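User: Sequence in, structure out. Go.
Assistant: Echoing your sequence, followed by the structure tokens.
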Amino acid sequence: MSFMTTVSPQVEFGLRVIGVWPGTPCSNLYRIFWTVSLGLAQTFQFRYIIGCIQTNDFSNLVDSVSTTLPYSLLCLKLIFIWLNQKLFNDILTSMSRDWHNCSAIAFNVCTMTNKAILSRRCSMLIIGVYCMAVVVYISVIMEFNSIVSDELGKEGQQLFLKMKFPFVYEFSPVYEIVMFVQFVQLLGHALVIGMLDALIVTLILHVSGQVDIVSQGLFELYSSDKCEHKSYRKATGAIIRRHQNLIALSDNIENLFSYIALMQFLTNTLVICCIAFVIVTSIDGNQGFIMLLKSLFFYTAITLEAFIFCFAGEYLSNKSKSIANAAYEAFWYNAEPSKSRNLLILMLRSQKRLTLTIGKFNDLSLQVFASILRASASYVSVLLAMS
């Protein structure tokens, strides 16, 4: 099995659907569709939130906020990626160049192929988790509606997404049409959110593959039988250029996802807090088990989204250290001083870790993920006191 890109077919298809993959026909139409779809959904969702505030319906307010903020975050993500189309194209160009440059060396091909296989598996897993969360969420809502329909009729039934429409929707066939549209929206938006999370994992795996190739190149360069090779200068230049391209690619990924991570950090903290509040308050209700099941899978998906970003930052930081370790462990002492000195600049530069940051303020790490969970737990206690 051979690959020429780290990007999985699922991620590429999703990028084409949102109109950011280079060469996608009618990409502007895709962008208009997502703008209109998310714009209308957000309008009706915020109308419902305003209604909850006016009626002092605190429980429904918290529940609606937990489903509205992920839509808002998706809107901001898409807008930011659309505005940074050139930067995204540069990232894809760098990845394509890396694959082209590794085609002649068996170790490089094997390393990048393994990363591509792992990327495809991670993409399928992430997207599958989001799809499962949507299926469970919708199934629970339908079960809840079937229970209350005998007692209250359609007036007591819930929509998949809590919205306030400027028209009456409780009678057939308008009700069924609204539910179907919301189902398609939920599933489509979950796929896009999962695809964007899989994209950051794909990019980090590609960078890690390049780190392994640079480390292996350093080891081979200073092995005892190659120190005096006539192509030493060419091999050194190739390693330095690959290291520079690796740093440039990492910086582009950081510039693209830094402020997305900031928005992710803020919204996920609030959403996790709201979902945890719904879980705690639903335990004592009449349909406590149903509401608990609905919120639990939603909570898992949102927590996974925050974990993916934090894990990607942690993995990139730790992986970048291996270049410095490989430089230190290479047999540079077997080479002439004039040749081993070429390694000094690379060693100094590799001491600066490659990182993903939260809006240039703080590095993404598992410690940040733990702080998100702690902050959410603290806010839950505040909401419980207010309710």
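User: And one key feature?
Assistant: The chain has eleven helices and two strands.
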